[in-house]
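Hi V.,

Quick status before I head out on leave. The structure for the redesign project is tokenized and pasted below; the design run finished overnight.
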């Protein structure tokens, strides 16, 4: 149950950014949007987020191993697939795209750049990749839940 809850938390986290946070930031002045996103990115670096983000695949693999150990091969395969989807389609894009973009944005002084151009380029690309993370984490959640629904 823990990996399902954790996948749900991460899917919701990503979802909120794509449908609310980024559209809200797009509605304010670019210099303020940059400053707000810098603050948001700094605040995300906290133990609660790290545990949820990084331990989700660990818990999913653990649940998969336990399922295999008790002979529930089907559930084990689905949970392993959920872990794989999450790592490949959420963790990897985070590491390769979103975090480097956040680090580059953190180094910017909104008053010293063309804030409109910086924010436009950042927001569109960041939101696209965040939406990928939203959809794939939601898919991983569905895969993890499927054996529970299907067995009824």
């Amino acid at each position: 149950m823990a990996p399902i809850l954790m996948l749900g938390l991460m899917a919701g986290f990503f979802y909120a950014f794509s449908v609310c946070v980024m559209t809200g930031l797009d509605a304010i002045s670019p210099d303020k949007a940059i400053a707000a996103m810098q603050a948001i990115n700094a605040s995300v670096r906290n133990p609660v987020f790290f545990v949820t983000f990084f331990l989700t695949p660990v818990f999913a693999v653990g649940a998969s191993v336990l399922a295999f150990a008790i002979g529930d091969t089907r559930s084990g395969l689905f949970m392993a697939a959920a872990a794989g989807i999450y790592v490949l389609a959420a963790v990897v894009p985070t590491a390769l795209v979103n975090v480097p973009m956040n680090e580059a944005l953190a180094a910017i002084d909104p008053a010293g750049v063309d804030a409109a151009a910086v924010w436009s380029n950042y927001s569109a690309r960041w939101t696209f990749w965040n939406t990928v993370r939203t959809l794939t984490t939601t898919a991983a959640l569905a895969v993890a839940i499927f054996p529970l629904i299907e067995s009824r």
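Above is the designed sequence. Residues 2-150 form one domain.

G. will cover questions while I'm gone.

Best,
W.
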